[in-house]
Amino acid sequence: MPRRVLHDRFFKQAKAEGYLARSAYKLIEIDDRKRLLRKGDRVLDLGCAPGSWLQVAGERVGPSGAVIGIDLQAVTHPMPAHIRHAVMDAFTADPGVLTGEAGGMFDVVLSDMAPNTTGAGDHFRSYHLCRRVIELLPGLLRIGGNLAMKVFEGEKYPELLRHVGRRFREVKGFKPRACRDVSSEIYVIGHGYTGEPVSAGPGGQTTS
User: What are the residue boundaries of the structural domains of the chain, listed by start?
Assistant: First the structure.
């Protein structure tokens, strides 16, 4: 089925099912295929507006979990009590405040953030944004935790996979069907955060 038709389907489906954006189905497919989220997990959603990933993460972890979202834009839609969000910059926020709100280090960090797109140079800005997200992880993500992070594909993409692969037991790239057909976005999925860079070897693998 052409992606344009899928895009229309996901847009209509999101409205019918009460999701704030069709991007909800990206996280649904990511989690269905890659098994990132579990009941009771603590989840951090970076770049959470308009809130569709908050909704999905909240459903997946349930009331026994906690979902914390931050974005430069406000989320105005009401959320269940175990989902909290705030207007703040991900790169200046105090990690201790975020983990304190969640009740401990996060089990999963999600990032659907993207730079302002202008065409030329979008991939490089996206790559550097992802590198900055990785720099945040030591203060946020528990050892053994998982990551899903958006990046625009380009010449730096293999380098990013290697960079993430030195910090996770397994790293893969995944493109959900709900991505627009004209978009170069792909998601870097990391399982088993190690906390410190490790050399490639028998205990880990990096694949795209």
Answer: 3-206
Query: What residues act catalytically?
Result: 150
Contacts of 149 by beta carbon, 8 Å cutoff, 6+ apart: 109, 110, 111, 130, 133, 164, 187, 188, 190
Cα–Cα distance for residue pair 180/4, rounded to 1 Å: 7
In sequence order, what are the beta bridge partners of 42?
66
Q: DSSP letters along 79-115, please?
A: --TTEEEEE--TTTS-HHHHHHHHTSSEEEEEE---P
Q: How many helices (H) and strands (E) does the chain have?
A: 6, 8
Tens digits of residue pLDDT in 106-133: 999 999 998 887 776 889 999 999 999 9
Q: For residue 56, is it left (φ>0), alpha (ψ between -120 and 50) or beta?
A: alpha
- DSSP class of residue 137 equals G
Q: Rounded to two decimals, what is the model's pTM?
A: 0.88
Three-class HEC string of 33-48: HHCCCCCCCEEEEECC
119 Cβ neighbours under 8 A, 6+ residues apart: none
Taking domain 3-206, whether its CATH number is 3.40.50.720 is answered by no
